[in-house]
Each structure stands twice: as structure tokens, then as C-alpha cells.
Write a structure and sequence with these properties.
With 451 residues, the chain is an alpha/beta fold. It has 17 helices and seven strands. A hairpin with a 4-residue loop joins strand 5 and strand 6.
Length: 451
């Protein structure tokens, strides 16, 4: 009896197989390779369903005879079985789409999706399913869908469908035009924000010399809250055009005033490219260093050593009238040797004088000049503990410059790191970035936290 049921199920399976072959061959817009792939997957699905149905029938028969309920089925049970069978046949196309990976609602029951639409273009080739899903905007639907069991499902190759495909294409082109319009709007907003930022930056710093790419990108990220990795070239080209337009305008009367220091734009321009720093930049930055160290560090004027060499101690005696050098922890003395800057430090606690030179010149004479001054100052201020016991050393393990133009920047960075007790972890390749940071710090009248 079970064998007879199995043979009848197999005959129905072969009948449905022939119907599937004719249905697939009737689809004219599919390639032969796509038809072959669809046919194989359809046969695999139908074979699995046939096996499941046979096993289910055997299980029901065993259960019925084992329980003693009689060989026959009730009329209601037979009707339910026929309904389930027809529902299963009606849902085969939906399940096939899910098996091909083109149904984004895979978590639903296939029997519940028998009346839902299926995109025949997506079912034709599984490789294009993902692209179609991504290109279509959320909330949009294809121009035409085929209902399972409807006449249009058997006439997929008629000219009516070609017209619907054209309609779908027109809708897709229209949606792309809308996206392009939004992109133009966002690009215009981006350009406007870039110009506003550059205007403010130019007014604040008097030029675009200290401008870094990270400044612009950081500002734009704060405005749009999204990454701009795909628009970096657009941003940089817009900044370049703005910079070229600024160069054609007259330079405004820009200056920075902080306490007794005044910097003009010409003074700040010494921080551009590989220009030599002047005394105004050196001395005002020394003032910011003292403020940042809470005056535990004293920065002597860049003219101090020159005055000491030409007029002796009496020429600089009044320079420390209101300053007790021996109450400080560190003394910084910038030395200008005609065409070269170096730094001499005096550790008051350790009574140690050290020379920092970015060209590796161990000018012991410069260190001894500062030593002689400190001993005379201690005697004048009656600080007998500092009249002797000093040592002079030359620190050879310091960052060195590789050109003839950046010695002043090295001196300021030496001073900053030593005053803030930070290691001298910088090199020649960091100097362009350091120049920009010093420019901003001078205009902002305070030291910034290093990146």
C-alpha cells in the first residue's frame, strides 16, 4: 500500500516537472544559461518537497493504523489535505525565489507568502539580486510584479512586460536624477561651509599659513556628523582655489598684542616655509611658555646674551630687578649667534647648565658666559648657595636639523618641551607642523595641547 502511494506521488512529481519545464521555456527574456540554472534549482526543490511529502504520508499512515482509528480518512481530513497540497503548489515560485537568495523576507513562512509579488527579473539570475536590492531606494517598488498563478505569470515574455520593464527603467532614471539633485545641494552646502570656515580662519590668523588639512576636515565633520573620506579631494581643491583668491587681495593691517609684545603680520610670516625666526616671535613665545609653566620657568629675552657680551653684567643687571631667578626651577636663555639660534638652560635645583644645539655645536664658551652671569647674580642677590658648585654640560642626544633654516624653531620646541617636562620626541619632518602650531599659539596667546 505504501509502495502504491509512493508511485502515485512520483507520477504527480513527474507531471509537475514537465509543467515546470514548459513554464521555464516560455520565458523569452531569460538566457539559456539562466534557464538551465533555474531549472536545476527548481527540480532540486521539487524533489526535496516530494521526499518530505512521502515521509509525511508514511508517518501519518503508521500513526493512523497504530492508533486503531481505521484505514480510511475522514472527509474533513481529506479536504484539508487537498487544500494544503494546492497551497504548496501555489507557493512553489515564492519558495524558489527564497532558495535563490532573492527574497529579503526569508524569515517568513513560505505558505504565508503565496499571494505576494515576485520580481521575475530578480528570479531570472540570482547574481543580480543584490545589486537590484541596493540600487532601489527604501519604500520604492518595481513597476510590475507577477502574481503566482495569475495569467501574467505564464505570459512573462509578452510585449506587455517589455513595456513594464521600460517603465521600471524610466522610474529608476528619475530616482537617480533626484539623488543627483540632492548630491548637488549637499555639495553646494559643503562649499558654503568651507568658505565660511576659511573666512573666519583668515580673519583670526591674518593668513592661511597655519592652515592644516585636519582643521578643515575637523570643522566639516562637526557640521555634517559624517565621514568625508570620499570628498577629501573636493575639499582640498576648494581650499586651493580660496587660497589663490586670497593671495590676490591686499594684506590687511593684522597684528597681535599680548602684554608688552606686539606682533605684526610680517613677524608672523617668518614662521612660513623655511624662513628664519626673528626676535619678536622668539620673545613672545617665551612669554607664553612662562605663562603655561605658571612662572616656574623663566625665559630670558633673546637680546640678553648679546647685551651681556657687549656691556657685561652691568648691562643686564636691571633685567632681573623684579625677578628672583633662584626661586625658579629652570632658566631658558635663547642665544643668537649672528646666523644661528641655540639654547642654554640652567637647572637651578641641580645647579647644572646645559647647551642645546640643533647643529651639534658644543659651544662651551656660551655655557661659561651664562655660568659667570649666574654666579655674579647670586653674589649680588646674596644667594651664597648658588655662588659655586655649578657644572656645564652639552647634551648631544637632542633632535637635529637637516637644513640651515629651522634652528629658531628647534630652539622654541626645545624650550617648550623642557618647560613642560616633556620628552624631546620630534624631528626635522615635524617642523612644518610645529611652525603652523606656533603661529596659531601666538595668535591665540596661549599654548595648545599637542596632537
Amino acid at each position: 500500500m505504501h509502495r502504491a502511494q509512493s508511485q502515485r506521488s512520483k507520477a504527480k512529481y513527474l507531471k509537475r516537472r514537465k509543467g515546470s519545464i514548459s513554464l521555464i521555456n516560455g520565458v523569452s527574456h531569460m538566457s539559456r544559461r539562466a534557464k538551465r540554472r533555474l531549472y536545476c534549482k527548481l527540480q532540486l526543490w521539487m524533489w526535496r518537497k516530494w521526499r518530505e511529502k512521502c515521509h509525511f504520508g508514511i508517518f501519518r499512515a503508521k500513526k493512523r493504523f497504530g492508533s486503531g482509528s481505521g484505514p480510511g480518512l475522514s472527509l474533513k481530513t481529506q479536504k484539508n489535505k487537498r487544500k494544503a497540497y494546492h497551497a504548496l503548489n501555489a507557493a512553489k515560485t515564492s519558495v524558489l525565489v527564497s532558495a535563490l537568495g532573492c527574497d529579503t523576507r526569508g524569515s517568513e513562512d513560505p505558505l504565508k507568502r503565496q499571494n505576494q509579488d515576485v520580481n521575475t527579473d530578480a528570479a531570472a539570475d540570482s547574481n543580480t539580486c543584490e545589486d537590484i536590492t541596493q540600487s532601489r531606494e527604501p519604500g520604492t517598488t518595481p513597476a510590475q510584479r507577477l502574481e503566482v498563478g495569475s495569467p501574467s505569470a505564464q505570459t512573462a515574455g509578452t510585449p506587455g512586460q517589455d513595456q513594464s520593464t521600460v517603465t521600471d527603467t524610466d522610474e529608476t532614471i528619475s530616482s537617480k536624477k533626484t539623488v543627483s539633485l540632492h548630491t548637488d545641494d549637499s555639495l553646494n552646502a559643503l562649499t558654503k561651509d568651507i568658505h565660511e570656515f576659511l573666512d573666519d580662519f583668515y580673519m583670526k590668523y591674518g593668513s592661511l599659513i597655519p592652515l592644516c588639512r585636519s582643521d578643515v576636515l575637523r570643522h566639516l565633520k562637526g557640521k555634517f556628523y559624517t565621514g568625508l573620506s570620499d570628498r577629501k579631494n573636493t575639499v582640498l581643491s576648494e581650499v586651493t582655489r580660496y587660497r589663490a583668491a586670497i593671495l590676490q587681495k591686499p594684506v590687511p593691517s593684522f597684528q597681535v598684542v599680548y602684554k608688552k609684545h606686539t606682533l605684526t603680520l610680517d613677524d608672523l610670516l617668518t614662521l612660513a616655509d623655511q624662513n628664519w625666526l626673528n626676535d619678536q616671535v622668539m620673545n613672545m613665545y617665551g612669554e607664553l611658555i612662562m605663562e603655561s609653566s605658571h612662572h616656574k620657568v623663566h625665559f630670558l629675552n633673546s637680546f640678553f646674551h648679546r647685551q651681556l657680551m657687549t656691556k657685561g653684567y652691568d648691562g643686564v643687571k636691571r633685567w632681573t630687578k623684579q625677578v628672583d631667578l633662584f626661586s625658579k626651577s629652570l632658566l631658558l636663555v635663547p642665544i643668537h649667534l649672528e646666523v644661528h639660534w641655540c639654547l642654554v638652560t640652567a637647572n637651578i635645583v641641580q645647579k647644572k647648565i646645559c647647551l642645546y644645539d640643533s647643529q651639534g655645536n658644543g659651544l662651551q664658551k656660551v655655557g661659561r658666559n651664562i655660568l659667570k652671569y649666574l654666579m655674579t647674580e647670586a653674589k649680588e642677590k646674596k644667594q651664597t648657595a648658588f655662588e659655586s658648585g655649578w657644572t656645564v654640560a652639552f647634551d648631544e642626544k637632542v633632535p637635529q636639523q637637516t637644513n640651515e633654516n629651522d634652528c629658531g624653531v628647534f630652539v622654541l620646541e626645545y624650550s617648550r618641551c623642557l618647560a613642560l617636562t616633556r620628552p624631546l620626541h620630534f624631528s626635522q619632518k615635524d617642523i612644518p607642523k610645529i611652525r603652523k602650531r606656533i603661529y596659531k599659539e601666538l595668535c591665540d596667546c596661549k599654548l595648545h595641547e599637542q596632537d
